């Protein structure tokens, strides 16, 4: 836990010295660290409360205990195996969502007829809470991998579809006009103007989708599963092992953080043409 | 290269020899409203530089859009060369393509695209920015790139819709010099929409004023180039033009 805090602290601090003048690296380094000071303090307080017996370990395990448990779960293979299962489910679901979301958005974004056919049903369906489909999915698909992957896929299709569709529809009409005066064909216009112009929105959609896919996974794995991080946590509940539950929680948290960072990296690579945005929290 | 839009009829052989652009009886209304262009006639000779003036909302852009093939011709007749290029007030560069890629966008030139882009960028004084992203260009640089993108197509007819209106005065002066030089070398027919009387007098062979849907003033500018504001004939033409625009210059 504290290890990851340090690592993220170092990661955010490093770019600063490059972009700022001489004397400031120390200062901005301190600012970067200071952001993590209060969480660190909370962890220390938490440990102190547990050690002093103020907090019952039946309710909350101590940070030290969590680290020990995480280590032993890693050593005996429980954590890696369950993590692998969860990752595979999330990745499969996301892959389906990407394929479906992008295809549907292209159909409805690039043709009026396509929009009439595709958009209305999707707009209606997106108002349904996807999680309410869990009982139905279990009835339809049983308790194997299918309902879990489909739940992830369904939940994360919507943000991808909605954002990409919006991106395609909101391309600057002046650029489309320019494409016409330059004599670009329909295909060229789609390839050079519409798709690159909608890419920022697509990536925003993907970021939402990734977040939602973890949420879907948590529910799917806790409702019924015999493997996965969620299952590991539900199993621990039976034995009052709050340490295992908290390990699962942190793993979910880390997965969320990492995947979000991954999409941000993609944005950085693919949207290099956008003017550099100011670093958050740095005054100019 | 590019197919001419259906709405613009192919030019006939007889007009090609006389005029680059011929507009006859062009009428344009929006949604059955009053006519923005009302039986408008205009001709531009090959290689002629015409400045189009008129108060805001008089239909200058509408005429340009029709000439460029963006808007259909419903009433009247328009003939113009097949190879045209337009530069608008905003550069309209694709932000996700580097400057040189923007220049040769839609060109079927084979492998030498980069070289041709570099050459024309050099010509507008933007050679050093060939690899830049468009959003990092200044307003003047972006308009230079837009000019380069128009020139690389070697148009027989170049349309400019208030291309320097958003630039500061100093940059605008530089751009006017640039356009004058480019036109001397390329000798295409030019229609420059401007609200700047001096700009028209500095650059054009002829200034026309659009008012109530028609060309009301057609003023030849028989001055030698390069032109100077201090020239008394320049002063005279200036007051004539201002007069026809409804501004009285005392
Ligand atoms: N797409 C449009 N729909 C309706 N009215 C339009 C449209 N485009 C232009 N107009 C009208 O036509 C008139 C001329 O516009 P425009 O050609 O842009 O003027 P200018 O370029 O001379 O300032 C204006 O009154 C404007 O409101
Ligand atoms: Mg206009």
Automatic annotation (TrEMBL), chain A:
Transmembrane segments: 81-107, 127-143, 193-219, 239-257
Protein name, as recorded: ABC transporter permease subunit
PANTHER family documented for this protein: ALIPHATIC SULFONATES TRANSPORT PERMEASE PROTEIN SSUC-RELATED, ALKANE SULFONATE ABC TRANSPORTER-RELATED, MEMBRANE SUBUNIT
Location (main, coarse): membrane
Compartment list: Cell membrane
InterPro entries: MetI-like, MetI-like_sf
Keywords, in A-Z order: Cell membrane, Membrane, Transmembrane, Transmembrane helix, Transport
Keyword set includes S-adenosyl-L-methionine: no
Sequence similarity: Belongs to the binding-protein-dependent transport system permease family.
TrEMBL record, chain B:
GO molecular function, one term: ATP binding
UniProt cross-references to InterPro entries, sorted A to Z: AAA+_ATPase, ABC_transporter-like_ATP-bd, ABC_transporter-like_CS, ABC_transporter_ATP-bind, P-loop_NTPase
Database matches in SUPFAM superfamilies: P-loop containing nucleoside triphosphate hydrolases (SSF52540)
Domain ABC transporter: 21-237
Keyword Transferase: no
Pfam entry (one): ABC_tran
Oxidoreductase in keyword set: no
PROSITE patterns: ABC_TRANSPORTER_1, ABC_TRANSPORTER_2
Gene3D superfamilies: P-loop containing nucleotide triphosphate hydrolases (3.40.50.300)
Keywords assigned: ATP-binding, Cell membrane, Membrane, Nucleotide-binding, Translocase, Transport
Domain of life: Bacteria
Family statement: Belongs to the ABC transporter superfamily.
UniProt-recorded name of the protein: ATP-binding cassette domain-containing protein
């Amino acid at each position: 836990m504290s290890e990851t805090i340090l690592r993220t602290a170092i990661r955010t601090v490093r770019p600063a010295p490059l972009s700022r003048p001489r004397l400031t690296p120390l200062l901005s380094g301190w600012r970067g660290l200071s952001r993590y000071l209060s969480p660190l303090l909370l962890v220390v307080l938490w440990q102190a409360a547990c050690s002093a017996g103020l907090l019952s370990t039946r309710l909350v395990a101590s940070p030290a205990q969590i680290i020990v448990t995480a280590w032993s779960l890693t050593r005996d293979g429980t954590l890696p195996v369950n993590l692998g299962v969860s990752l595979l489910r999330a990745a499969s679901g996301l892959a389906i969502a990407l394929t479906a979301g992008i295809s549907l958005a292209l159909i409805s974004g690039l043709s009026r007829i396509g929009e009439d056919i595709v958009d209305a049903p999707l707009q209606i369906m997106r108002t349904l809470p996807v999680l309410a489909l869990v009982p139905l999915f279990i009835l339809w698909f049983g308790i194997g991998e299918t309902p879990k992957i489909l739940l992830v896929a369904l939940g994360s299709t919507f943000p991808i579809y909605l954002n990409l569709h919006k991106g395609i529809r909101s391309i600057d009409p002046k650029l489309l006009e320019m494409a016409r005066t330059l004599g670009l064909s329909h295909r060229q216009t789609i390839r050079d103007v519409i798709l690159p112009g909608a890419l920022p929105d697509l990536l925003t959609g993907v970021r939402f989708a990734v977040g939602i896919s973890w949420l879907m996974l948590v529910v799917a794995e806790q409702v019924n599963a015999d493997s996965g991080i969620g299952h590991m946590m539900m199993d621990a509940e039976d034995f009052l092992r709050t340490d295992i539950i908290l390990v699962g929680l942190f793993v979910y948290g880390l997965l969320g953080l990492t995947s979000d960072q991954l999409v941000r990296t993609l944005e950085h690579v693919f949207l290099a043409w956008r003017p550099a945005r100011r670093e958050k929290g740095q005054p100019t | 290269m590019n197919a001419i839009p259906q709405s613009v009829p192919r030019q006939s052989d007889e007009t090609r020899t006389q005029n680059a652009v011929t507009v006859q009886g062009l009428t344009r209304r929006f949604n059955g409203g009053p006519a923005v262009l009302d039986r408008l006639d205009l001709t531009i000779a090959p290689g002629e530089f015409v400045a189009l003036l008129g108060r805001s909302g008089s239909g200058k852009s509408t005429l340009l859009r029709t000439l460029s093939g963006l808007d259909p011709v419903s009433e009247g007749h328009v003939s113009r060369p097949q190879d045209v290029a337009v530069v608008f007030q905003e550069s309209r560069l694709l932000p996700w393509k580097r400057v040189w890629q923007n220049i040769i966008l839609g060109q079927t030139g084979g492998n030498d695209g980069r070289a041709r882009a570099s050459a024309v960028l050099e010509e507008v004084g933007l050679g050093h920015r060939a690899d830049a992203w468009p959003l990092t260009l200044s307003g003047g640089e972006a308009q230079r790139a837009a000019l380069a993108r128009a020139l690389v197509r070697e148009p027989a007819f170049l349309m400019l819709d208030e291309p320097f209106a958003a630039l500061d005065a100093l940059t605008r002066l530089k751009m006017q010099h640039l356009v004058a030089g480019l036109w001397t070398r390329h000798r295409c027919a030019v229609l420059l929409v401007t609200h700047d009387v001096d700009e028209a007098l500095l650059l054009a062979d002829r200034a026309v004023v659009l008012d109530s849907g028609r060309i009301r003033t057609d003023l030849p500018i028989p001055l030698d180039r390069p032109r100077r504001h201090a020239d008394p004939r320049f002063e005279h033409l200036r007051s004539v033009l201002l007069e026809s625009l409804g501004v009285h210059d005392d």
